[in-house]
Amino acid sequence: MQALFLGAGASFDCGLPLTWELTAEIRRWLTPERLAAYNAGWEAQGAHWNDAVIAQVNEWIADEDRHYEQILEALAHKSQTADYDFLQRDYRQAYIFFAQTVYAFLLERQAKNFRFASVVLKDYEGLKSLLELNRPLWIFSTNQDVVVELLAAQWKIPLKSGLQHTQTLTMGDGASTRTITFESQPNHPEHTPDFFADGEYGINLVKLHGGLDSFFSDDGRQRLKVKPDPQHLDDYLADLVFINQVNQALTVKQDGLVTNRSLYQDAEGKLHALERSLVAGYQHLQNNLPQPSPAPYSLMQQVLAEVEELIVIGSRLEIPAINRMLADWLRDDNHRLMIVDPAQRHLPKVLQDSAGNIRPVRQGATEFFLSLNRHKNVYMSLLHNLQRNMRRKVRMKLLNSLTTRQ
Description:
The protein is of the alpha/beta class. The protein has three domains: about 200 residues, no CATH class; about 90 residues, no CATH class; about 30 residues. The protein is about 45% helix and about 15% strand. The chain contains 14 helices and 13 strands. A seven-stranded parallel β-sheet has the order 3-6-2-1-11-12-13. Helix 11 links the parallel strand 11 and strand 12. The longest helix has 28 residues. The protein is globular. The protein starts with a strand and ends with a helix.
């Protein structure tokens, strides 16, 4: 049995940013002048940050050796260890503001690159070869994007994320409304997640850190995930953008305070809030914030016990908890790790003792899925190669424009 583990590099060809790329985008936008202007607005509401917190945030953002995840971790640490309660409070608010910024930039890139990604995903048909051999195919991802959902819909592949039910919400900001369909599931250990069983055809998708389309409602008692309509994928992205736009409009009405929640009004005009899922929000904070059930890392560990080969695509393997899990799993000589990475980076130290069970493949995601395609002669034509190379040049130009240091 095989399974996939996806990192940011798996979505790179689809126009989604790598870690340092997203950090560079945020750095260009969140200048000291812009942060000072925001803080002045919060001061009018009695919620401004202390000058020491502002100075520290500016210092971390300016540090070109620190990416956005490290900034979030540092803010979370300071929110628990700063010398005074008022500083801990302000660092927590800084964390929430920065997490909301990350969410907004990811969503903007996802929406703007929908057409681009749709063309790229035509090269990913080779995924079907894995599905024929692995029923179901488990995919674990640290990404917040919705590339796997778009891929499944484009190739008409059934997909489950553990949510069994469906519900619709009428969401608006007082000026416009939209009815949005969600997959839903009570967020409680007693409720069994709905995944494809052994022998069934489809993708079981587990987003280890949440996602742009995933939320909690009812104080964390319910999990929600925007449900795509394969016939109208434009609407799927439009729903996500609308949820964010409604939140922005209502946040202004609520004195402009940042909450990292998605506010909306129902059909009767009553105000509600969806908590964004962990990756998009409170990944590093505790304090009784919603946690997904079942715990994604525990679920991955449980599934890995039945997996013979895990195919890692586009991950730098920088998450210690995952690396320790993989190291324990690789102690069984029957387990193999394939690492698909065009850069072919060094293995994390904890995995080096298992190098004999690890096979590096120097390819990007597109090349890897093309290599699996039984009909690849169609896709390897001269015209398709020229188009593919042009897309790659455009993508690399954007990456270099953002990450090349002056």
